[in-house]
Amino acid sequence: MGWLFGNTTKREADIEWLHTDIHSHVIPGIDDGASSMEDSLQLVEEMYNLGYRKMIITPHVRFGSFENDTDTFDKRLELLEIAADEKGLNMEFEVGAEHTMDEYFRHLIKIDKLKSFNDGWLLIEFPFHSLPAHWKDMIFDLQIAGYKLILAHPERYVEFLPFNKKVIDELKDRNILFQMNITSLAGFYGKHVLKFAKYLVEKDYIDILGSDLHNMRHIEYIKKSLHNKDVFNLINSGVLQNSKF
Prior knowledge:
245 residues
Protein backbone atom coordinates (compact mmCIF):
# COMPACT_ATOMS: atom_id res chain seq x y z
CA MET A 1 0.00 0.00 0.00
CA GLY A 2 1.44 3.40 -0.97
CA TRP A 3 2.59 6.30 1.16
CA LEU A 4 0.48 9.43 1.25
CA PHE A 5 1.12 13.07 2.07
CA GLY A 6 4.89 12.95 2.55
CA ASN A 7 5.52 11.00 5.73
CA THR A 8 1.93 9.90 6.32
CA THR A 9 0.75 6.44 5.38
CA LYS A 10 -2.21 4.14 5.65
CA ARG A 11 0.16 1.55 7.11
CA GLU A 12 0.96 1.64 10.82
CA ALA A 13 4.21 0.48 12.39
CA ASP A 14 3.76 -2.54 14.66
CA ILE A 15 5.07 -1.50 18.05
CA GLU A 16 4.60 -5.03 19.39
CA TRP A 17 7.66 -6.07 17.41
CA LEU A 18 9.78 -3.83 19.64
CA HIS A 19 8.26 -5.41 22.78
CA THR A 20 10.49 -3.36 25.14
CA ASP A 21 10.64 0.38 25.61
CA ILE A 22 14.09 1.47 26.74
CA HIS A 23 14.06 5.00 28.19
CA SER A 24 11.11 6.54 30.02
CA HIS A 25 10.29 8.70 33.02
CA VAL A 26 7.14 7.24 34.53
CA ILE A 27 8.07 6.60 38.18
CA PRO A 28 6.06 9.32 39.94
CA GLY A 29 7.60 12.33 41.64
CA ILE A 30 11.23 11.55 40.90
CA ASP A 31 12.10 13.81 37.97
CA ASP A 32 10.35 15.83 35.25
CA GLY A 33 8.18 12.89 34.20
CA ALA A 34 5.01 11.59 35.84
CA SER A 35 4.07 13.65 38.88
CA SER A 36 1.63 11.22 40.52
CA MET A 37 0.86 7.52 40.62
CA GLU A 38 -2.34 8.23 38.73
CA ASP A 39 -0.33 9.85 35.94
CA SER A 40 2.12 6.93 35.93
CA LEU A 41 -0.60 4.32 35.58
CA GLN A 42 -2.26 6.24 32.76
CA LEU A 43 1.05 6.35 30.86
CA VAL A 44 1.74 2.65 31.49
CA GLU A 45 -1.75 1.72 30.30
CA GLU A 46 -1.28 3.75 27.12
CA MET A 47 2.06 2.06 26.44
CA TYR A 48 0.49 -1.36 26.95
CA ASN A 49 -2.31 -0.50 24.54
CA LEU A 50 0.28 0.56 21.98
CA GLY A 51 1.82 -2.92 22.17
CA TYR A 52 4.71 -2.61 24.62
CA ARG A 53 5.06 -5.44 27.12
CA LYS A 54 8.14 -4.28 29.03
CA MET A 55 9.29 -0.84 30.15
CA ILE A 56 12.81 -0.05 31.28
CA ILE A 57 12.28 3.14 33.26
CA THR A 58 15.22 5.53 33.46
CA PRO A 59 14.86 8.45 35.90
CA HIS A 60 17.16 11.41 35.37
CA VAL A 61 20.38 11.58 37.37
CA ARG A 62 21.87 15.01 36.72
CA PHE A 63 23.92 17.57 38.62
CA GLY A 64 21.99 20.54 39.96
CA SER A 65 18.50 19.35 39.02
CA PHE A 66 18.03 15.62 39.58
CA GLU A 67 20.73 14.48 41.99
CA ASN A 68 18.68 11.41 42.75
CA ASP A 69 19.85 8.68 45.09
CA THR A 70 19.87 5.62 42.86
CA ASP A 71 19.56 3.39 45.94
CA THR A 72 15.89 4.46 46.16
CA PHE A 73 14.95 3.49 42.61
CA ASP A 74 14.12 -0.16 43.25
CA LYS A 75 11.72 0.70 46.07
CA ARG A 76 10.04 3.37 43.99
CA LEU A 77 9.65 0.89 41.15
CA GLU A 78 8.14 -1.67 43.52
CA LEU A 79 5.40 0.82 44.43
CA LEU A 80 4.63 1.31 40.74
CA GLU A 81 4.56 -2.45 40.17
CA ILE A 82 2.09 -2.94 43.01
CA ALA A 83 -0.17 -0.18 41.71
CA ALA A 84 0.00 -1.51 38.13
CA ASP A 85 -0.83 -5.02 39.32
CA GLU A 86 -3.82 -3.74 41.30
CA LYS A 87 -5.03 -2.00 38.14
CA GLY A 88 -4.63 -5.21 36.14
CA LEU A 89 -1.82 -3.92 33.90
CA ASN A 90 0.30 -6.85 32.78
CA MET A 91 3.43 -4.80 32.07
CA GLU A 92 6.92 -5.98 32.99
CA PHE A 93 9.15 -3.31 34.52
CA GLU A 94 12.82 -2.74 35.12
CA VAL A 95 14.54 0.38 36.42
CA GLY A 96 17.84 1.95 35.45
CA ALA A 97 18.71 5.63 35.14
CA GLU A 98 19.43 8.23 32.51
CA HIS A 99 22.84 9.42 33.65
CA THR A 100 23.99 12.79 32.34
CA MET A 101 27.75 12.76 31.80
CA ASP A 102 28.67 15.68 34.07
CA GLU A 103 30.81 16.17 37.17
CA TYR A 104 28.19 14.50 39.35
CA PHE A 105 28.39 11.50 37.04
CA ARG A 106 32.17 11.33 37.51
CA HIS A 107 31.56 11.34 41.27
CA LEU A 108 29.04 8.49 40.97
CA ILE A 109 31.54 6.47 38.95
CA LYS A 110 34.10 6.84 41.73
CA ILE A 111 31.71 5.76 44.48
CA ASP A 112 30.07 3.06 42.34
CA LYS A 113 26.54 4.48 42.58
CA LEU A 114 25.47 4.05 38.97
CA LYS A 115 22.13 2.46 38.18
CA SER A 116 22.37 -0.09 35.38
CA PHE A 117 19.75 -2.55 34.12
CA ASN A 118 19.54 -5.88 32.33
CA ASP A 119 22.86 -7.26 33.50
CA GLY A 120 25.12 -4.23 33.24
CA TRP A 121 23.57 -1.93 30.64
CA LEU A 122 23.89 1.77 31.43
CA LEU A 123 21.96 4.60 29.73
CA ILE A 124 24.07 7.74 29.39
CA GLU A 125 23.35 11.12 27.88
CA PHE A 126 25.53 14.05 26.84
CA PRO A 127 24.76 17.59 28.00
CA PHE A 128 22.83 19.28 25.21
CA HIS A 129 25.23 22.17 24.67
CA SER A 130 28.60 20.43 24.17
CA LEU A 131 30.58 17.23 24.48
CA PRO A 132 31.27 16.58 28.17
CA ALA A 133 34.76 17.13 29.46
CA HIS A 134 36.74 13.90 29.84
CA TRP A 135 34.10 11.92 27.94
CA LYS A 136 36.66 9.51 26.54
CA ASP A 137 38.09 8.82 29.99
CA MET A 138 34.64 8.25 31.48
CA ILE A 139 33.64 5.84 28.74
CA PHE A 140 36.93 3.99 29.08
CA ASP A 141 36.51 3.68 32.87
CA LEU A 142 32.92 2.46 32.50
CA GLN A 143 33.76 -0.18 29.95
CA ILE A 144 36.76 -1.39 31.93
CA ALA A 145 34.40 -1.73 34.91
CA GLY A 146 32.20 -3.99 32.81
CA TYR A 147 29.34 -1.65 31.90
CA LYS A 148 27.70 -1.90 28.47
CA LEU A 149 26.70 1.54 27.26
CA ILE A 150 23.68 3.01 25.50
CA LEU A 151 23.78 6.65 24.39
CA ALA A 152 20.38 8.29 24.80
CA HIS A 153 18.92 10.20 21.84
CA PRO A 154 22.13 11.10 19.94
CA GLU A 155 19.98 12.81 17.30
CA ARG A 156 19.14 15.57 19.81
CA TYR A 157 22.71 16.78 20.30
CA VAL A 158 22.44 19.01 17.25
CA GLU A 159 24.48 21.85 18.76
CA PHE A 160 27.71 19.87 18.43
CA LEU A 161 27.43 16.24 17.30
CA PRO A 162 26.62 16.80 13.59
CA PHE A 163 29.86 18.77 13.35
CA ASN A 164 31.87 16.00 15.02
CA LYS A 165 31.25 13.03 12.75
CA LYS A 166 34.52 11.42 13.87
CA VAL A 167 33.14 11.39 17.42
CA ILE A 168 30.05 9.55 16.19
CA ASP A 169 32.21 6.97 14.45
CA GLU A 170 34.41 6.58 17.54
CA LEU A 171 31.40 6.00 19.78
CA LYS A 172 30.19 3.25 17.47
CA ASP A 173 33.70 1.78 17.27
CA ARG A 174 33.60 1.54 21.07
CA ASN A 175 30.47 -0.65 20.77
CA ILE A 176 28.13 1.93 22.26
CA LEU A 177 24.50 1.42 21.26
CA PHE A 178 22.53 4.43 20.00
CA GLN A 179 18.97 4.89 21.31
CA MET A 180 16.84 7.19 19.18
CA ASN A 181 13.59 8.71 20.41
CA ILE A 182 10.74 7.30 18.33
CA THR A 183 9.22 10.77 17.95
CA SER A 184 12.39 12.38 16.57
CA LEU A 185 11.82 10.95 13.09
CA ALA A 186 8.34 12.43 13.08
CA GLY A 187 9.58 15.96 13.78
CA PHE A 188 8.70 16.26 17.47
CA TYR A 189 11.98 18.06 18.28
CA GLY A 190 12.13 20.18 15.14
CA LYS A 191 13.68 20.06 11.70
CA HIS A 192 17.33 20.08 12.79
CA VAL A 193 16.86 17.01 14.98
CA LEU A 194 14.83 15.37 12.22
CA LYS A 195 17.60 15.96 9.67
CA PHE A 196 20.28 14.54 11.96
CA ALA A 197 18.06 11.61 12.92
CA LYS A 198 17.71 10.68 9.26
CA TYR A 199 21.48 10.86 8.82
CA LEU A 200 22.03 8.45 11.72
CA VAL A 201 19.44 6.04 10.32
CA GLU A 202 21.04 6.17 6.87
CA LYS A 203 24.38 5.29 8.48
CA ASP A 204 22.75 2.28 10.19
CA TYR A 205 23.81 3.70 13.55
CA ILE A 206 20.50 3.33 15.41
CA ASP A 207 20.21 0.23 17.59
CA ILE A 208 17.22 1.03 19.83
CA LEU A 209 14.02 3.05 19.60
CA GLY A 210 12.87 4.51 22.91
CA SER A 211 9.91 6.62 23.92
CA ASP A 212 11.62 9.07 26.32
CA LEU A 213 8.12 9.16 27.76
CA HIS A 214 7.31 11.92 30.26
CA ASN A 215 3.64 12.76 29.79
CA MET A 216 0.50 12.29 27.70
CA ARG A 217 1.72 14.72 25.04
CA HIS A 218 4.48 12.23 24.29
CA ILE A 219 1.93 9.42 24.07
CA GLU A 220 -0.09 11.32 21.50
CA TYR A 221 3.01 12.01 19.42
CA ILE A 222 4.13 8.37 19.63
CA LYS A 223 0.76 7.41 18.16
CA LYS A 224 1.29 9.88 15.32
CA SER A 225 4.83 8.61 14.81
CA LEU A 226 3.58 5.11 14.04
CA HIS A 227 2.16 6.45 10.76
CA ASN A 228 5.50 8.00 9.79
CA LYS A 229 7.31 6.33 6.88
CA ASP A 230 10.76 6.58 8.45
CA VAL A 231 9.56 5.11 11.76
CA PHE A 232 7.76 2.34 9.90
CA ASN A 233 10.85 1.48 7.86
CA LEU A 234 13.17 1.51 10.88
CA ILE A 235 10.91 -0.73 12.96
CA ASN A 236 10.62 -3.14 10.04
CA SER A 237 14.32 -3.04 9.15
CA GLY A 238 15.25 -5.88 11.51
CA VAL A 239 18.22 -3.95 12.97
CA LEU A 240 16.66 -2.75 16.22
CA GLN A 241 17.62 -4.56 19.42
CA ASN A 242 14.76 -3.58 21.75
CA SER A 243 13.41 -7.09 22.05
CA LYS A 244 16.75 -8.36 23.41
CA PHE A 245 16.20 -6.44 26.64
